Please model this.
Amino acid sequence: MKPIHQSILIICKYHSATNTRGSRISFRLGLPDSKARFISFNYELNGEIEMVAHHIEKELGLIPLWQVQNKETPSLVYAWDANLVEFVGLK
Model:
């Protein structure tokens, strides 16, 4: 019997600057009741996917399996990891 490959989707979103706040990126789990986590925009990296992947790798040492290029909701796919779910959080 082959093991079931479980993965988790991380949805990324860009938020433009306002009068009171600079540009930032949010990311959340592709699960109901997921919290959104915000990080500052990093001009050294190319886009929101790279920024979120870099942040998660730095914090948890996890590397995405692949990315999903969708204009409205670019996303990253990671192997299922309870630490990642806890890191992003649920409401």
The mean pLDDT is 88. The first strand starts at residue 7 and ends at 15. Strands lie at 7-15, 24-29, 37-40, 66-68, 75-79.
